[in-house]
């Protein structure tokens, strides 16, 4: 079948849980999860920075794992639980990492921020960031062109310390 | 009135923070409309030549494709070249998308596919067939530099090199100590995280609302009106959030033209978002070659400074920056010769990128100063103190303020510079060579005419508005702080609206001038508001302020209070009501003023910095890390230490990228940029950035702007790359004079 017979004409049904809500959707097999979120579901908090899995701006949580949504086709998500930046705050209260990002000034233009926060939330759950160096390493899939990196590390460190997962280091 | 303030001068979190951390901040490609069409650009495969045939038949046959625009069928736009000029462009003929069959650079837009969905537009774009007749191109500056020329028409706002002073060649020849070398900086691309995008909302009746990735909504508005022959009432540009600019959004980019063209032709809303690859088809920092020669006495005192630079530009515009003037400004010498030339390449026009020109010229100058320090045996900091400029010798005027000495002293102390063993390769830990280097930084401090409006409602809430942008600089926040203090309100009672062309006039956000300019405009509008409110409060029957003068009162906690008797006060809400309306409004402009602009320059305004850097280099593998940076900055009044620190950290990260990572590589056989992605064009990642400490040196400046501000957006990058190169020399004994300093250069050097 020629490609353009598929693009934009056929759809495939999927059932997902999106930000805690069950959704039944008909998606084009050529559409990425990122474009599904941004174009079809008006969830533009998830950002497109490169569309090639190189910048991390599109990071979302799929079944709790941080994943570049530009590298996922929408049709692959059947049965998955997806959380985007819009779904992190619960009952009007920001996630502790969202608050820490504000407090630590961990962003400037804000465009990479949703991806940084989703990535950071998963990193905290992964439980293997025990030092600032490890935070830096495990957050290096998310580019921040404004260069807020030291503040991003501060914000994640704050939440790890709050949760008792991390001992505050003396000055490095 | 900026004394005893509550908010100004104190660290405050960004007021746009909650929107940004929850995904509610809306960027250019995120606005939508019913019936929105999606556009996708087809780029040229050659760098120079003509299109001999273009066939869109197959693309147009794809279900869902609305139209394919090419030079053969695109609607007419303005004829004269000047109609395409924008507020900040250089001399020349601006690029006109799809204007003819001529190809001027690789990946030039040759067609625009518009379709019902993004997927369809992207797919159909791959089916557009283009045939070319190729002509020889030149994209290699190392060859084109031999045909360099002094730009015949100067770019507005860019100072050409000053006239030579003394006889620099002769003095250099006679100097007992001489250093002379060539220093080069690679082409760089801005790569803001948000790709350039424009969403045009067709409002009907020929009116459009444009959401553009821009650092100047009124620049985009004026461009669209001029090019498409529209009245400015028919074009409104609204861009409240911008996902990074760094200069790439100063001039209208081709996606703005193409999206508006399609919307007007199809009479429907259109969105065009460039891909990351296509972000390399427009603005970039020009590759620049510096030749720098210093002649000095044995004690390091400079006798002669010669600095010549050749920078790349396009064949159709003379993009110009200030590259060499810094060498005549930072250090005094009796013999100075500075020259700046351009060389034409078959590329898109370069443009301003964070501190345009300065980190290029200063890399050369500050590397050469380090070489001079070694040649004379004088400590690098001491060498700079021995050659400290007390006045701007380029223009022969005093500085408005200059606390660079304090930057050197405080930066060196914080860094521990006195513990440095000057011998290269002498400091090591295991297999790691440790290098400590330093450099000076300098950037312009400007104020531009800007207007702002302040409206206080009967509910006690203050609304501030101005057309300027906040590209991540913190403008929303500092304007909130200034306005809250001026009216004695909590920051929560102030809202700031920016990035809308219908708001009071502002220049583009660039040149580090927004805080000084928009901040002064907000202050002026609030002053007028205070005067009106006070008059209205004093007129209230039985007013406790009836016999007071405005200087006798303070605005505090939502009241106008008599300073000598806090019991006598009027609620702001009552003062508003006393005017007979439900609000009080003031709009004011602030700027250098016509008189100030016409008089000869009475002083020079610059920000300064001293950057100290530690690098660690694996002696076998050549892998380098920048482990520690201390940047001491003198930039006048600091409005918000929290966001100000972030500005400097961001600048330092850019300096690290310039020094170690960033380089756009062109295959000169094809005339095409080859590493046009974020996996191959390297920018610093989190693991590349370690300890960065920012010091704001106290500096009082009453000449640059009425609020004492000099600007912070760019100074952080200037000098950082030179400090790193100097640290590399200290670690390894290798002097690397071409940026970026990649592993191959460290191993070979």
Description:
The complex is a heterodimer of chains A (172) and B (749). Chain A folds into two domains: 6-87, Ubiquitin-like (UB roll), CATH 3.10.20; 96-162, Orthogonal Bundle (DNA polymerase, domain 1), CATH 1.10.150. Chain A starts with a helix and ends in a 10-residue tail after the last helix. The model of chain A has no long low-confidence stretch (mean pLDDT 93). By secondary structure, chain A is of the alpha+beta class. Chain A has helices at 3-6, 33-40, 96-103, 113-126, 132-138, 149-162, and strands at residues 12-18, 21-27, 59-62, 65-68, 81-83. In chain A, helix 4 (113-126) runs parallel beside helix 6 (149-162). Chain A is globular. Chain A contains six helices and five strands, in the order H-E-E-H-E-E-E-H-H-H-H. With 749 residues, chain B is of the alpha+beta class. The model of chain B has no long low-confidence stretch (mean pLDDT 96). In chain B, helix 12 packs parallel to helix 13 and helix 16 crosses helix 17 (720-732). Helix content of chain B is 25%, strand content 26%. The longest helix of chain B is centred in the C-terminal third of the chain and has 26 residues, at 514-539. Chain B has three domains: 31-136 and 192-275, Alpha-Beta Complex (Aldehyde Oxidoreductase, domain 3), CATH 3.90.1170.50; 145-188 and 284-446 and 602-748, Aldehyde oxidase/xanthine dehydrogenase, molybdopterin binding domain (Aldehyde Oxidoreductase, domain 4); 448-591, Aldehyde oxidase/xanthine dehydrogenase, molybdopterin binding domain (Aldehyde Oxidoreductase, domain 4, 2-Layer Sandwich). Chain B is built from 18 helices and 31 strands. The chains are: A alpha+beta (172), B alpha+beta (749). Chains A and B meet through helix 2, helix 3, helix 4, helix 5 and helix 6 of A and helix 1, helix 3 and helix 16 of B. Chain B: Residues 138-167 are annotated as: Disordered. Chain B: It comes from Bosea vaviloviae. Chain B: Residues 22-136 form the Aldehyde oxidase/xanthine dehydrogenase a/b hammerhead domain. Chain B: GO terms for molecular function: iron ion binding; oxidoreductase activity. Chain B: Residues 138-153 have a biased composition (Basic and acidic residues). Chain A: Keywords: 2Fe-2S, Iron, Iron-sulfur, Metal-binding, Oxidoreductase.
């Amino acid at each position: 079948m020629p490609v353009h017979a598929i693009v934009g004409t056929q759809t495939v049904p999927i059932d997902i849980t999106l930000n805690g809500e069950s959704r039944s959707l008909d998606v084009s097999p050529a559409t990425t999860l990122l474009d599904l979120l941004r174009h079809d579901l008006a969830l533009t908090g998830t950002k497109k920075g490169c569309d090639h899995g190189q910048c991390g701006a599109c990071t979302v949580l799929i079944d709790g794992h941080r994943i570049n949504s530009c590298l996922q086709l929408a049709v692959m998500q059947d049965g998955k639980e997806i959380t985007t930046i819009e779904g992190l705050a619960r009952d009007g209260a920001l996630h502790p990492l969202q608050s820490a990002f504000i407090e630590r000034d961990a962003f400037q233009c804000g465009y990479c921020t949703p991806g940084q926060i989703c990535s950071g939330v998963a990193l905290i759950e992964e439980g293997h960031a025990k030092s600032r160096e490890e935070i830096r390493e495990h957050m290096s899939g998310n580019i921040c062109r404004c260069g807020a990196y030291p503040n991003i590390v501060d914000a994640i460190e704050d939440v790890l310390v709050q949760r008792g997962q991390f001992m505050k280091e003396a000055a490095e | 009135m900026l004394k005893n303030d509550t908010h100004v001068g104190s660290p405050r979190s960004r007021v746009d923070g909650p929107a940004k951390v929850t995904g509610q901040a809306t960027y250019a490609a995120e606005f939508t409309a019913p019936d929105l069409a999606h556009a996708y650009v087809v780029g040229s495969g050659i760098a120079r030549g003509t299109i001999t045939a273009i066939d869109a038949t197959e693309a147009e046959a794809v279900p869902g494709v609305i139209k394919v625009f090419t030079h053969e069928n695109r609607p007419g736009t303005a004829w004269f070249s000047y109609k395409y000029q924008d507020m900040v462009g250089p001399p020349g003929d601006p690029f006109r998308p799809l204007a003819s069959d001529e190809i001027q650079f690789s990946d030039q837009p040759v067609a625009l596919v518009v379709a019902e969905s993004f997927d369809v537009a992207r797919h159909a774009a791959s089916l557009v067939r283009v045939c070319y007749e190729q002509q020889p191109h030149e994209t290699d500056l190392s060859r084109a530099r031999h045909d360099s020329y002094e730009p015949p028409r100067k770019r507005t706002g860019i100072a050409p090199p000053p006239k030579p002073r003394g006889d620099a060649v002769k003095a250099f020849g006679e100097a007992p100590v001489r250093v002379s070398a060539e220093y080069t900086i690679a082409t760089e691309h801005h790569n803001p995280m948000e790709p350039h995008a424009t969403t045009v909302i067709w409002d009907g009746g020929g009116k459009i609302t444009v959401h553009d990735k821009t650092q100047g909504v009124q620049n985009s508005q004026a461009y669209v009106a001029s090019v498409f022959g529209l009245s400015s009432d028919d074009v409104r540009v609204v861009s409240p959030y911008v996902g990074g600019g760094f200069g790439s959004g100063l001039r209208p980019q081709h996606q703005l033209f193409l999206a508006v063209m399609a919307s007007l032709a199809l009479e429907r809303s259109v969105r065009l978002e460039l891909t990351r690859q296509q972000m390399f088809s427009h603005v970039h920092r020009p590759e620049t070659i510096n030749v720098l020669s210093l002649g000095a006495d044995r004690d390091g005192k400079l006798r002669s400074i010669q600095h010549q630079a050749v920078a790349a530009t396009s064949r159709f515009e003379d993009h110009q920056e200030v590259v060499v003037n810094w060498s005549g400004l930072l250090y005094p010498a009796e013999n100075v010769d500075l020259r700046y030339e351009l060389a034409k390449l078959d590329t898109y026009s370069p443009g301003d990128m964070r501190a345009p020109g300065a980190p290029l010229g200063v890399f050369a100058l500050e590397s050469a100063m380090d070489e001079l320090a070694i040649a004379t045996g004088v400590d690098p900091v001491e060498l700079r103190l021995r050659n400290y400029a007390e006045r701007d010798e380029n223009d022969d005027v005093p500085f408005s303020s200059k606390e660079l000495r304090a930057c050197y002293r405080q930066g060196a102390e914080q860094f521990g510079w006195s513990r440095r063993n000057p011998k290269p390769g002498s400091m090591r830990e295991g297999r790691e060579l440790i290098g400590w280097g330093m450099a000076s930084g300098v950037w312009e401090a400007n104020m531009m005419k800007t207007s702002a409006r302040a409206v206080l409602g009967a509910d006690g809430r203050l609304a501030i508005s101005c057309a300027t942008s906040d590209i991540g600089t913190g403008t929303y926040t500092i304007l909130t702080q200034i306005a809250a203090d001026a009216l004695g309100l909590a920051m929560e009672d102030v809202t700031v609206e920016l990035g809308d062309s219908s708001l009071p006039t502002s220049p583009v956000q660039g040149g580090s001038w927004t805080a000084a300019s928009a901040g002064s405009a907000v202050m002026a509008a609030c002053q007028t508001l205070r005067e009106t409110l006070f008059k209205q409060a004093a007129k209230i029957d039985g007013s406790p302020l009836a016999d007071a003068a405005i200087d006798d009162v303070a605005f505090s906690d939502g009241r106008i209070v008599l300073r000598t008797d806090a019991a006598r006060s009027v609620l702001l809400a009552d003062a508003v009501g006393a005017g007979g309306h439900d609000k009080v409004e003031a709009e004011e402009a602030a700027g250098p003023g016509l008189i100030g602009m016409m008089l000869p320059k009475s002083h020079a305004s610059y920000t300064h910095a001293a950057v100290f850097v530690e690098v660690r280099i694996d002696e076998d593998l050549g892998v380098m890390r920048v482990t520690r940076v201390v940047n001491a900055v003198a930039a006048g009044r600091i409005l918000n230490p929290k966001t100000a620190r972030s500005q400097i950290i961001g600048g330092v990260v850019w300096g690290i990228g310039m020094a170690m990572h960033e380089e756009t590589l062109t295959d000169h056989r094809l005339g095409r940029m080859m590493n046009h992605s974020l996996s191959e064009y390297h920018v610093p990642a989190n693991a590349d950035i370690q300890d960065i400490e920012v010091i704001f040196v106290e500096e009082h400046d009453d000449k640059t702007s009425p609020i004492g501000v000099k600007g912070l957006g760019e100074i952080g990058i200037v000098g950082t790359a030179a400090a790193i190169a100097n640290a590399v020399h200290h670690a390894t004994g290798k002097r690397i004079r071409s940026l970026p300093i990649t592993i191959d250069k460290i191993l070979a050097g």
